[in-house]
Each structure stands twice: as C-alpha cells, then as structure tokens.
Amino acid sequence: MNLSSIDLVVIAGYLLGTLALGLYISRLAGKDMGAYFLAGKKIPWWALGVSNASGMFDIAGTMWLVSMCFVYGLKSAWLPWVWPIFNQIFLMVYLSIWLRRSNVMTGAEWLQTRFGSGRGAELCQLVVVIFALVSAVGFIAYAFKGIGKFAAIFFPWEISPDLYALMIFTVTTLYVIKGGMYSVVFTEVLQFVIMTVAALAVGVIAINLVTPEQITQATPAGWDQLFFGWQLELNWDGLIDSVNSKIQQDGFELFGLMVMMMLFKGVLFSMAGPVPNYDMQRILATRSPKEAAKMSGLVSLVMFFPRYMMVAGLSVLALVYMGPEIHAQGEGFDFEQILPYAINNFVPVGLTGLLIAGLLAAFMSTLAASLNAAPVYFVNDIYKKYFRPDADKRTYVRVSYLVSLLLVLIGVGLGLMLSTINEIMQWIFGALFGGYAAANLLKWHWWRFNAYGYFWGMMAGLISSLILPLLLPGVHPLFAFPLLLLLSLFGSVAGTLMTAPESDQVLCRFYAQVRPWGFWGPVRQKVLAESPELAEDIHGARDLVNVAVGIIWQLSLVIMPIYLVIQQWYGLLSAFVVTALTSWILKKNWFDKLKEE
After folding, report:
1. pLDDT band for position 477 (cuts 50, 70, 90)
2. What is the structure's pLDDT at 184?
3. What parts of the sequence cross the membrane (predicted)?
4. Is the dihedral of CA 410, 14, 283, 62 positive or negative?
5. Domain boundaries defined on the chain
6. How far is CA 51 from the centre of its chain?
7. What is the pLDDT, as a whole number, of residue 2?
8. What is the spatial distance between Cα 261 and Cα 263, in angstroms, rounded to a whole number?
9. Contact call for residues 198 and 305 (beta carbons, < 8 A)
10. How confident is the model at residue 447 (pLDDT cuts 50, 70, 90)?
C-alpha cells in the first residue's frame, strides 16, 4: 500500500510528538524507584484507568478480534473470555481494594504482607519475579509479531515485517526506558484519545457503506446471533469456504464447550488476582483503595465501545466488499490480515493516517506498559534486596534501563521464532496464565496456605506451562488448563500441608490489613475479637453478586457497538436496556458503598 503524503505526515507527526512528550515528562521519573515505576502514587485514578485501557487496546489483540468477528460474528463477543476480559470486573468489585491496601511496589513485595519474612517468603518472591519476567517476554513477542504484520502492509518500503517491528520498537523503547511510568501514562492518555477518534470514525464509515441486507448476503445463518448451542453451526460453504477450515483450526466447532471452559478458567483466574504486569502496577500506583476500584471500573467503561466500533466496522467492510477476493485466495489467506486489508481499501486519505497512528499508539501502549511493569520486579525484589541494598536511588533507575533493554532483546528473539499472533496469544493466556491460577487463588482465600505451598504451586504451574507446547503440541491450551490447574493445585496443597502454617502474627496482620473473605475462620475470630468494626469491610456475598452483574454489564458494553454497526436495532435496544439496568445495580450495590480509607 502506498500511503498518501498527508497520511505519512500524520503518522510521522504522531510518532515525533509521542517521543517528545515522553522524553519531556521523563524528567519527573528519575528521582527514585517510586517515581519511576509508580509515579509517586500521584497520578489521578481516571488517568491511570484510561492508561490501562490504552495498554489493553493493543494492535495484535485488535487484529485477532477483527479476524474473530469476521469469522464468528456476534458470537465473537464471548471469545475474549479466554483472556479473560472479565477479570477487570473482579478487580473493580473487590480485588483492587485488597491489593492496594498492601501499599507496596510490586506483587512480589506484596507476598511479604501475606507470608511475612523468612526462607519460604523469599522463595515466593523469587518465583513471582521469574513469572513476571517470563510473561513480559511473551507480551513483547506478541506485540512484536503484531506490529510487524501490520506495518508491512501499510508502509511503502519493501522491508520485511520483522524489520519494521524492530524500527518501531526502537522508538517506543527509547521513551519508555527513559521516562518510566510518567511517560507511559501520559503518552497512553494521548494515544487513547487518538485511537478512540479513529475507531469511532471507522464504525461510522461502515454504517454508511454497508446495509443489513448486504451483511445477511455475505454471512451464514446464525452469524448475527449472540447465543449458541453446543455446536457452532456456522456453515461458510459457498461464501468463503476457507473460513470453515479456520474454524476447525481454531478448535471452536464445539462452541458451547469452549465457552464453558473459558468461563471455568476465567473465574478461577480472575479470583486469583492480577498477574504481575501493568494491570497490577496501575492498581498499586493509585492514591487509595477506593481510587483503585474506580480505576479498574473505568477500564471497561471507556474501552469496549470504541474498540468494538472499529472491530465490527472493519469486519463487515471486509465481509461485504472483500468476501469474493478472500474466497478466491482459498486456504492461503491469513485472517489476521483482515484489519490492515480493510483499512487499505475503505478508510479515506487523512483518516487512514490517523487510524494507523492510533493503531501504532495501541501497539506502543502495550509495549510501554509491559516494559515499565516488569523491570521493577528484578530491581526491587532481586537487585536491591540481595546485591545493592544501599545503592543510591538513581542507580536503581539505571539498572531498570538495562533490564528493560534485555527484556526487549529476548522478546524480539522469541517473536522472530514464532509465526502467528494467535500462536503467541494462546500460549500466554491459555497455558502460561493457566499455571498461575491455583496458588494465587489460595493465597487470598485460604488461611492455612503458606509460603512453601505458594512456591511449589507456582513452580508446578510455571514449569508445566513452559513444557506444555513440547509435550502436547496438538492440544489447545484452553483444554490443557484443567491439567495445569491440577498440577499447580497439587503442588500448592502438598507444599502447604508438608510444612508449618504461617504464624498467627503474620496471618492476623494480613487479615486486618486486607480484610479478605473466604476460608479464614480461625484467623477471622482472633482479629474480630480485637477489632469487631472490621467485619463491616468483609462482604463476600455482596461482592459475588456484583461480580455476576458486572460480567453481564461488561458483555453488554461489548455487544452494543457490534449491534450498532450491523444495524440490528432491536438487539441494540436490548443491549442498551441491559447496560442501563446493570449500571444502576452496580451504582447502588458497588459504587455507592465504596469508602475512603
């Protein structure tokens, strides 16, 4: 594709502006680790929420979502449960509050709140650091593969996708490493505004160019229906025959079973709390537990409507106007290329530059967030603790520069080895995160669980997830989740029962500080005997009701823009009514009950 000079000017202006803004703000970040990694806990919660949403609005994920919407239609609204997107609801309702009450810098440091000090706690911190670094490398590889595929279509030079990715990585890495969280948050707010304008414009273009009748003719029966049975029952024969092969390759023929597995895995994973990445970092950077909850709620509120306007818009444009061309290419068509193909053919000059700049912003947000979140685990929990506890503050910041650079190099190397976005995404969210669930679920909800149980549970899950692609190459990572869960659960329970429980002092201090619900009977009695007023902050039943309502609320936010773009007005009205009703319930039963601490 040959971009117009206007589009190239818009893209170049955006890249230079982002770099300048990031470097200008970087002067605030070099004071110490608190300023560099958490921005001194001074950034408003709404800015952190928009930044978090921008970090999740990534280009590789958006390319995947467009390919899923193209193939599965409205049923694709369920597929992000594989991540799962509804973990933001658990964070919003109660987990962000629990986590922020610890008042620490990293998830590894948080473990001292739960398990105290000693050999077991040190092993716990070590395994979390390893997990944080491994998952960061996976996210970097995921972003690398997505931006390379995307750039190779749009930019006019005959350069390989991987070389394009290396060029864009260089720009992003420069301002992130230099500016820390200040640069990340404020550039991501700018990026989110650009991305939202571009995404809404794409949706409006699709509404104007495509009629409901054209969509019906280009798609099989059931494509425009949200609900499903055990079988997917989407037959693309005669329309785009290769889509049937895509469905078989994805392993989604038993769609009902897949959604049940995603829900099962997603609930357990969500109750385990955030993995040690940018999501956790933004929670810890808020000013208070109440602001942490509001920040997590804002992510769902602002992200889904613009993102799915673009996803649905590009999908229907490709279906109606490119269907015959895609059909003619047969099995050789790469469905992850639908997003750039649709932009290439249907977005006008000027807006194309803005949209590409916005998608570059989305990519840069994902990379920036991962790069800023991971190094703190090594610097704070390894280097500072064991090697240079008395070093000056700027030394720790400089070490973080080096760690960030090494992570980029390793992530790029992994990205060069893997072939598709879906391959990386399934490994990260299906396997790696699957090994995280058991130990981290138990740490919140079972008083007897101790540091050694956490260490062995995490090690069992991490090792199993890393060797899974080698031992079970033909098994979908989602179906391997129960095995990963059982192995991690066995390591957690065995490690716990073979060692002594944590001391009453550690357990009571944690319970009084965090106020979790679950199987805390003996500890709860001791704490409430001295501080009965804490019982007001422990309301498990109310939290679980709010979670259920919140998942429905979030799903309605996803399907509303899809109904709007495909112009199904009764579906849009139904989704709006559900959104309004669930919003009112959450206002009364969650938001109004948040309290200052």
Report:
1. low
2. 66
3. 6-25, 45-66, 78-99, 120-144, 150-177, 189-210, 254-275, 296-322, 354-378, 399-418, 424-442, 454-472, 478-500, 544-563, 569-586
4. negative
5. 5-593
6. 12
7. 61
8. 5
9. no
10. very high
251: left (phi over 0), alpha (psi -120 to 50) or beta: left
Residue indicated by tokens 């991305």: 195
pLDDT, tens only, 149-201: 777 777 767 777 778 888 877 776 765 555 555 566 767 787 788 888 888 98
Q: What does the radius of gyration of the chain's CA atoms come to, in whole angstroms? A: 24
pLDDT, tens only, 334-377? 676 777 777 777 777 777 887 777 777 666 666 666 666 677 77
Long-range contacts of 129-133 (CB under 8 A, 24+ apart): 129/377, 129/378, 129/381, 129/382, 130/462, 131/275, 131/276, 131/436, 131/458, 131/462, 132/106, 132/107, 132/108, 132/275, 132/276, 132/277, 132/373, 132/374, 132/377, 133/374, 133/377, 133/378, 133/407
CB 431 within 8 A of CB 484: yes
* CATH class in words for 5-593: mainly alpha
**What's the residue count for the chain?**
597
Strands (DSSP E) found in 26-73: none
SS3 231: coil
The single residue listed with the structure tokens 């130990």 is 439
